[in-house]
Specification:
Organism: viral metagenome
GO biological process, one term: DNA topological change
Helix content: 25-40%
Strand content: 15-25%
GO molecular function, one term: DNA topoisomerase type I (single strand cut, ATP-independent) activity
Number of domains: 5
Radius of gyration: 32 Å
Pfam families: Topoisom_bac (PF01131), Toprim (PF01751)
CATH class of the largest domain: Mainly Beta
Shape: globular
Protein name: DNA topoisomerase
CATH architecture of the largest domain: Distorted Sandwich
Mean pLDDT: 86
């Protein structure tokens, strides 16, 4: 009997984490492998032929993993009957699909390309059932973006090395979007410098039996003014009035785009945009949420239908009309998936006609389609087939506890936002109470009472009954109220704040710099370069005179108060200031916000086949060369320095700012410099040398010998740690911010003994073990580290995964590791 051959279809994705699920959904005839992202790169400016329409020579990325992956893909493609490209639905994903075709000789015009935005069985099967082909317009847009970024990097970064500093390991760099991102932080710094704060008094009057705080609508600027106001308030008739209830509506939140999600997670959980995207990638690959890189604010019809059912079952009252619980604009939140897909396919067929000879669409139809796709006020050209970020299953309110804590918290926020956005507005009644004060000043108090919670039902964190609201409505109009007390506290107002990462994401989006998928990378890059740091901002501490008027007695008090203190804010560093000021002076035409936004708009036009991709590269490269030539004519080739005195100057060296010292014999040496230098003050000659030189700090102490090696106590970026031979152990959990000089050899030995290092010695390094107790240890295996557990009564050992452990299991405190293993696997 002749057996029929089983057809093998190879599905290529970017991330290996998707493969298992996709294979399980598609069945035995399919195999899924990953490219691990891009396989080819442009490795130098020489690879771009600027005189021949920027034709580019790509090479396989030079690292062992990529080499192995290319060979694996070559082997799998040769064995497959059919190849389906399932890279991500964005410019990079489209380009990766094209590179795979080029690298393995697959026909671009006919190789199947599938798109899905959630890893569910329905989505995967639907995608396989309706494949497309590679959109070369999108590929061209990605290629333009990549070439532009390289042109900026290879052309302008060397100028920074020449005039500011060249370093071997931490080179200064300019970037097409990186530099405008840095400029936003710099502009914030300039605004902060120009707004030191305006002194005034914050005055509150406490009235009624509830002692409600009414805010005065006037800020007195001097001690004498507020003192006079308070003295005259003693005999003043404070007349109360209250408005009639006014209905107000609070709209539900919009669906999450990438940038809005990053902002929400940063604000609520204090997780950086970069880390947020990392966790969202895991949630997406696990099938919990839709694709996390999107500009869309719409949902699929299926999701809206399922969410309406969920709202009906969980929030709508018995006997109530369901419609009153639903967003009245719900229809506008729905993607027009089928219609848009048809239009997109018609457009693609038309622009590819010379190659694949498909059905021709009339010119009028193309124009209409193009107009339709670019008429949005948002203008960012989000694909309508994309959805906002949402859960794949609205019934799943919480994901399993086996997931990381941060992933669970991020998912919960996404779930809440998605359901809230589909629900009705919350309705309130608002009243405004006023008390006429002395000097025509008015004390005001605003109060709201919820009438219909709408979307607020999801979190159920709203005040059902506001006692102040009911109470104020009972008070007689134009009645005279006696104050309980009136306070006047000194404050500084109009102080500009440094930006959070969430605020920078918002501004990048508003100014059209980069795309949602690149925001987190840009924020990370300017910090990685040392241009910006996320740090605590020390405020200004000053003596304040406050007043309290109570029982007709005015009491004056003095207190020390700090203004402008901030935590986890983006602060531009001296290196960043010197770099951005240089680039603004000599390359402003390229790095101003409007030009950067126009570049992004042009990339969108290329993706829509409205512009030739290489013309954008020609224009930008020409501008760079013109500005660079002009700079060479204007400026000598010498490093930029700030002169302190005849022998000392401030400059950027290999590892950042230093003081350059030149003695009488012209011998140069360097001194460390403090990090909180005000460059403007330095330029004005406002510092003495001793005020800015950093005294040397001890960062490495030899404690003694341990297992035949020198035992060093060190201070690093994340606190204290100890090293011996090739081993290291974090001590930040044990000693916190304790000065390095105050840690003893015996204390460190005690910790190493407790954590299982003392008895294992150097054999630990070879076997990869960390002893947790007599029955449990961590071992190194073929596929990574794992937990090994075997008691004396057990015939065979048990093996457990370390996935989900929230800390570094190699250096964390043993008790933390023990507790986690016990809780997760119920073993002692």
């Amino acid at each position: 009997m002749i057996q029929s051959k089983i057809t093998k279809t190879l599905v290529i994705v970017e991330s290996p984490a998707k493969c298992g699920k996709i294979e399980s959904y598609l069945g035995p005839g399919y195999k899924c492998v990953a490219s691990f992202g891009h396989l080819r790169e442009i490795n130098s400016l020489d690879a771009i032929d600027v005189s021949n329409n920027f034709q580019t020579k790509y090479t396989i990325i030079d690292n062992p993993q990529k080499t192995r992956q290319v060979e694996l893909l070559r082997k799998e493609i040769a064995l497959a009957d059919e190849v389906i490209l399932a890279t991500d639905d964005d410019r990079e994903g489209e380009a990766i699909a094209w590179h795979i075709c080029m690298l393995f000789d697959l026909p671009v015009q006919t190789t199947k390309r599938i798109i899905f935005h959630e890893i569910t069985e329905t989505a995967i099967r639907n995608a396989v059932a309706s494949p497309k082909t590679i959109d070369m317009n999108v590929v061209n847009a990605q290629q333009s973006r990549q070439i532009l970024d390289l042109l900026v990097g290879f052309t302008i970064s060397p100028v920074l090395w020449k005039y500011i500093s060249r370093t071997a390991e931490h080179s200064l760099s300019a970037g097409r979007c990186q530099t405008p991102a840095l400029r936003i932080v710099y502009d914030n710094y300039v605004e902060i410098k120009a707004a030191p704060g305006k002194p005034c008094y914050d005055t509150k009057g406490y009235f009624t039996n509830l002692s409600l705080p009414f805010e005065l609508d006037k800020d007195y600027e001097t001690k004498e003014e507020v003192e006079s106001f308070l003295e005259n308030s003693v005999n003043h008739d404070h007349i109360f009035t209250c408005s009639q209830p006014e209905p107000i509506v609070k709209q539900p939140p919009e669906p999450f785009t990438t940038s809005k999600l990053q902002q929400a997670i940063s604000n609520e959980l204090h997780i950086s945009p970069k880390e947020t995207m990392k966790h969202c990638q895991k949630l997406y690959e696990a099938g919990y949420i839709t694709y996390m890189r999107t500009d869309s604010k719409k949902y699929s019809k299926d999701f809206i239908d399922s969410t309406v059912k969920y709202i009906s079952a969980n929030y709508a009252d018995m006997g109530s009309q369901l419609d009153q619980f639903l967003n009245p604009k719900l229809a506008s939140l729905q993607t027009n998936y089928k219609e848009e897909a048809t239009k997109e396919e018609e457009l693609r067929e038309d622009v590819e006609t010379p190659v694949i000879k498909k059905k021709i669409v009339k010119k009028e139809s193309v124009k209409k389609v193009l107009k339709t796709k670019t008429s949005s006020k948002q203008k960012v050209a989000a694909q309508e087939a994309h959805e906002a970020i949402r859960p794949t299953n609205v019934q799943l309110k919480d994901i399993p506890e086996t997931c990381e804590t941060k992933e669970r918290r991020i998912y919960k926020i996404i779930w809440e936002n998605s359901v809230e956005s589909c629900m009705a507005p919350a309705k309130y009644n608002k009243i405004s109470s006023k008390i006429q004060g002395f000097d025509a000043a008015v004390f005001k108090y605003f109060c709201e009472q919820i009438v219909f919670p709408g979307w607020k039902l999801v979190k159920n964190k709203y005040e059902k009954v506001t006692k102040e609201y009911k109470y104020l409505l009972t008070l007689a109009q134009n009645s005279v109220l006696e104050y309980k007390k009136i306070t006047a506290s000194f404050k500084l107002t109009n102080i500009k704040s440094h930006y959070t990462e969430a605020k920078l994401v918002q501004l990048l989006e508003e100014k059209g710099i980069g795309r949602p998928s690149t925001f987190s990378m840009l924020i990370d890059k300017i910090q990685e370069r040392g241009y910006v740091k996320k740090e605590e901002v020390k405020g200004q501490t000053m003596e304040c005179i406050d007043f309290v008027l109570e029982n007709d007695e005015l009491v004056e008090s003095k207190t020390m108060r700090t203004f402008g203190h901030e935590n986890a804010k983006l602060v531009i560093q001296p290196t960043g200031i010197m770099v951005i000021e240089f680039l603004i002076k000599y390359y402003n035409d390229i790095f101003n916000y409007d030009y950067t936004k126009e570049m992004e708009d042009s990339l969108d036009e290329i993706a829509q086949n409205k512009k030739l991709w290489y013309t954008l590269c020609e224009s930008a490269f020409s501008s760079m060369l013109t500005l660079t030539d002009k700079l060479k004519e204007e400026k000598k080739e010498e490093k930029q320095e700030i002169v302190i005195d005849a022998s000392h100057s401030y400059m950027i060296a290999k590892y950042g700012p230093v003081i350059k010292c030149t003695n009488a014999d012209k011998v140069v040496s360097f001194l460390p410099v403090k990090t909180d230098i005000d460059l403007e003050k330095l330029k004005r000659g406002g510092y003495k040398l001793e005020e800015i030189v950093e005294s040397p700090k001890t960062t490495d102490i030899l404690l003694g010998k341990y297992n035949g090696h020198d035992l060093h106590l060190k201070k690093g970026k994340f606190g204290l740690y100890v090293t011996w031979g090739e081993h290291s152990k974090s001590l930040s959990f044990h000693f916190g911010n304790r000065p390095i000089e105050n840690v003893t050899y015996l204390e460190v030995m005690s910790i190493l003994d407790k954590d299982g290092y003392l008895t294992k010695g150097d054999n630990d390094k070879q076997s990869g073990e960390r002893q947790i107790n007599k029955t449990t240890c961590i071992k190194k295996g073929k596929y990574g580290d794992y937990i090994y557990h075997k008691t004396a009564k057990m015939k065979k050992p048990e093996f457990f995964k370390l996935k989900g452990f929230p800390e570094d299991y190699k250096t964390c405190d043993t008790e933390v590791l023990k507790s986690w293993i016990k809780e997760k696997y119920n073993i002692e």
